[in-house]
Amino acid sequence: MRRPTASHFDPRRGRVNLELPDLLYDRSKLEAIFLPTGQMLQLDRVLHLHGNKLVAEFDVRGHWVFPMHFPSDPIFPGSLLIEAAGQAVAVWAWHAGLRGKPRMLRVAAKFKQPVLPGDDAVTLCAEVQQRRNICLGNVELSLGGRTVAEVRPMILVLPN
Fold first, then answer.
1. Which of 15, 39, 58, 87 is the residue whose CA sits 20 to 30 A from 27?
2. pTM, entire model
3. In which domain, by residue range, is 12 found?
4. What is the number of domains present in the chain?
5. Which one from 8, 48, 50, 69 is the annotated catalytic residue?
């Protein structure tokens, strides 16, 4: 399992640079907020969160889904890529001060390349727009510089 040293989002290039030693949220901190826990928590870490931008990752190698999702031809399900993008936007909302129950209202997704068992970690680069308790994200999911999906989740945070 790859563990990055650190990361930050370079808005000029629209990509992640591995330089900074900060890790904002690890898996235990993510489980302590309002996200799903256990196997349904798709994010492993949040590496950068500034303004309306967020960079997060989840580990692919050894993921629990591969033995079950087409065992003879394993591929990472698109629905879990969508879930990861929605969770990234929900983390941004939490960090921005929205408290409550996040719900995905709608989503649009384009899948470009498969995520396979031999891959390392998927990087999610999100840009989020907020209007009251609704957050709309543009999330690019990539592996080693290649884009695997583009997801646009709309998250509503219901007050407690």
1. 15
2. 0.85
3. 8-158
4. 1
5. 69
